[in-house]
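Worked problem 6 (solution included).
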Amino acid sequence: MIYLDSGATSFRKPASVRRAVSDAMTRCANPGRGGYGAAMEAAKVVFRCRERAGNFLGCEPEQVVFTSNCTHGLNVAIRTLVKPGMRVVVSGFEHNAVTRPLHGLGAEIVTAGRKLFDWEDTLQKWEDALKKGTDAAVFTHVSNVFGYILPVEEMAALCRQRGVPFIIDAAQSAGTLPVSLKTLGADFIAMPGHKGLLGPQGTGLLLCGRVPEPLLMGGTGSESIRQQMPDYLPDRGEAGTVNVPGIAGLEAGLRYLEAVGIENIHRREQRQTKHCAEGLQKLGLKVFAGPHQGGTVSFVPKMECEEAAALLARRGIAVRAGLHCAPLAHESAGTLETGTVRVSFGIDACREQTSALLRAVSKLPERES
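Solution. The predicted structure is:
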């Protein structure tokens, strides 16, 4: 199988990640719940990952809260900052993991910046929206549909200038682009562990610039006499048993990234994105490509998107079709009615993958008129 769906999850994890998961399952008990060897070993594994994540992502270890995925982290962050009726500014490329919690809270959602690959428009619309007054802002680092890398440093600076608390969704950037809580000054940055960070599914990180409101309440292994959650990090955000094998695998994924270098991964993915977009354009397809693009490219085939993806799957090419849980992004790009076929490269991006995809796409039938 030629796997081109890294935007959904990284696949064929490094061998070190698989070994770390297996090792933790044989050596680790429950961290913070006992002083015996297996519990202490689990605590060491968890802290080692917390420390490595902090170094990798520009924050202190205690500012790293383990979550089950990016959506979990975004829900914690949004529910901490946003109350019913608040005015919240978002970009035009947000995932349902952002928009659904906001709708559920009854927030007034203002969408700012809807032109793909256009930093000038994004920043102008963002600034205009903030000037009108807002209670909070949430924005993605990279569009999961189109690979558009938003100017997050500048957007963050505009929020800081106006004293607007903000959340960054780093689902598609962590592990391929620099992400730093300290540099960006965000209130929260949420990310999955299973995508660019190469950890197992069921892992995620929430970087906390402030103490969050608990989404879940329960045991933390600390201050057990109290009937309120601890008021300090990371305990306030981690009720119940954490995913120790997953965290062990995530720490191994971070070590792998440190050794390879995220800048090298980003260059490799971008190279194939450009080659892929050019090849698809030569086939006469509508392709979404431009400057400030990461390792993802979307196109509209000459047939139904889901049918095209199914035919590609039969030829051993794994891509994703449809609305990609991001109808707002498709509305911004004008593809809400059709959806797109998304190609998203990973750490193994290479020309052979792209060439195989282009050959398979060239053989797709056209939609009957």
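Discussion: The mean pLDDT is 97.
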